[in-house]
């Protein structure tokens, strides 16, 4: 029975962890000197995972989309329905870093199939980013609003909160590029930038627009200070230059 087997596979790690914690607690109760060895073992087990997460976050924040896709390549080739999902994952990365032409080409390579409808949320997210950066504001607004009204997937509480943050951040991003931001959008963009390093810089550039439109040009430097050196393929290169120029001009204007 596949369902029962899957349930047992999911339950086994939980049971193992509970038993391990019980044995550790018993050992410490008998002799507190066990704390040192147990702590050392725990650190040794945790360090590789933490290092891996730190390296991936650093790569995502670097904006190096080609290196990122190269790292993903070995894993994504094994995903189910790869004829749909692999191009869609590539399109997500390209869109998140402002590579518009490459993002559109990747979307066009994604073949409709069993995973096409299931990936509707991801497709809308990618298309909304591309529409926004291409200046198709009305289309971007419609897709962002549709995305916010979609039912939440059945996942854990933490994942659901993260999805809500990213959806709200995307809507705020669309409004920012339309110069129609509302109260609370700057906070929504900040939360979304912190929730996913993949869209960190997209949200930061939107936040910089909100800052300039709101008369807070002085905060733009802080928002964009550690931004990567974007290649010519990315629209972020032009955004960065324009936003920094406007911020510097307005700061100088107010100082005289």
Keywords:
globular, mainly alpha, 256 residues, 13 helices, 77% helix
Layout of strands and helices, then pairs:
Layout lengths: L1 H29 L4 H28 L2 H12 L5 H15 L3 H10 L4 H5 L1 H14 L3 H13 L7 H21 L7 H11 L4 H14 L6 H5 L11 H20 L1
Walk me through what this model shows:
By secondary structure, the chain is mostly helical. The chain contains 13 helices and no strands. The chain has helices spanning 2-30, 35-62, 65-76, 82-96, 100-109, 114-118, 120-133, 137-149, 157-177, 185-195, 200-213, 220-224, 236-255. Residues 1-12, 14-28 and 34-47 have low confidence and may be disordered.
TL;DR of this structure?
The chain has about 260 residues and is mainly alpha-helical.
Whole-angstrom Rg: 22 Å
Q: Number of helical runs?
A: 13
User: How much beta, percentage-wise?
Assistant: under 5%
Distance between the termini: 76 Å
Number of domains: 1
- Average residue pLDDT: 80
Principal-axes geometry comes out as: globular
| Low-confidence runs | 1-12, 14-28, 34-47
Order of helices and strands: HHHHHHHHHHHHH
Helix content: over 70%
Total beta strands: 0
The structural class is mainly alpha
- Specify the biggest β-sheet: none
């Amino acid at each position: 029975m596949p369902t029962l087997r899957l349930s047992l596979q999911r339950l086994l790690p939980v049971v193992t962890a509970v038993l391990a914690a019980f044995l550790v607690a018993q050992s410490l109760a008998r002799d507190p000197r066990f704390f040192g060895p147990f702590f050392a073992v725990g650190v040794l087990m945790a360090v590789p995972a933490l290092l891996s997460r730190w390296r991936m976050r650093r790569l995502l924040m670097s904006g190096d989309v080609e290196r990122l896709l190269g790292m993903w390549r070995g894993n994504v080739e094994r995903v189910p329905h790869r004829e749909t999902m692999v191009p869609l994952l590539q399109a997500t990365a390209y869109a998140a870093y402002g590579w518009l032409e490459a993002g559109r080409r990747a979307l066009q390579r994604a073949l409709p199939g069993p995973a096409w409808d299931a990936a509707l949320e991801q497709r809308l997210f990618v298309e909304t980013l591309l529409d926004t950066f291409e200046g198709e504001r009305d289309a971007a607004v419609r897709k962002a609003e549709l995305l916010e009204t979609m039912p939440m997937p059945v996942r854990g509480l933490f994942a659901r909160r993260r999805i809500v943050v990213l959806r709200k951040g995307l809507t705020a991003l669309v409004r920012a590029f339309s110069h129609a931001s509302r109260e609370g959008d700057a906070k929504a963009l900040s939360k979304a930038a912190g929730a996913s390093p993949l869209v960190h810089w997209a949200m930061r550039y939107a936040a910089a627009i909100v800052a300039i439109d709101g008369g807070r040009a002085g905060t733009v430097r802080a928002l964009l200070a550690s931004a990567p050196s974007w290649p010519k393929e990315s629209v972020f290169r032009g955004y960065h230059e324009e936003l920094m120029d406007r911020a510097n001009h307005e700061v100088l204007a107010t100082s005289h």
